[in-house]
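FW: tagging you since you asked about this chain on Friday. Here's the raw sequence from the shared folder, copied in full. Didn't touch anything.
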Amino acid sequence: MPQMVAIQLEVPDDLARFRLPPGVNTRLQELLDRQDSGKRLTAAERKEAHGLVNLAEMLSLLRLRVERASSRRAKKP
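HL: got it, structure written out here
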């Protein structure tokens, strides 16, 4: 049976921090571009790319949830 876990985080005022750092994003783009151009990635590179994509997705979800929670708080009287 699925369980729900609630986590409290201190959120920075600058939501841009919920993104991959530029160097990490560049690496992910390099891997994805190589794959898209038909070049095979090694097993280690595929694992790295998969992990970076998962991290980017998690950060995007966190950013969206923070934005939604912030807008709800702003609407409350």
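FW: The two ends are 37 Å apart (CA to CA).
HL: agreed, and The chain has a mean pLDDT of 86.
FW: great, closing this out.
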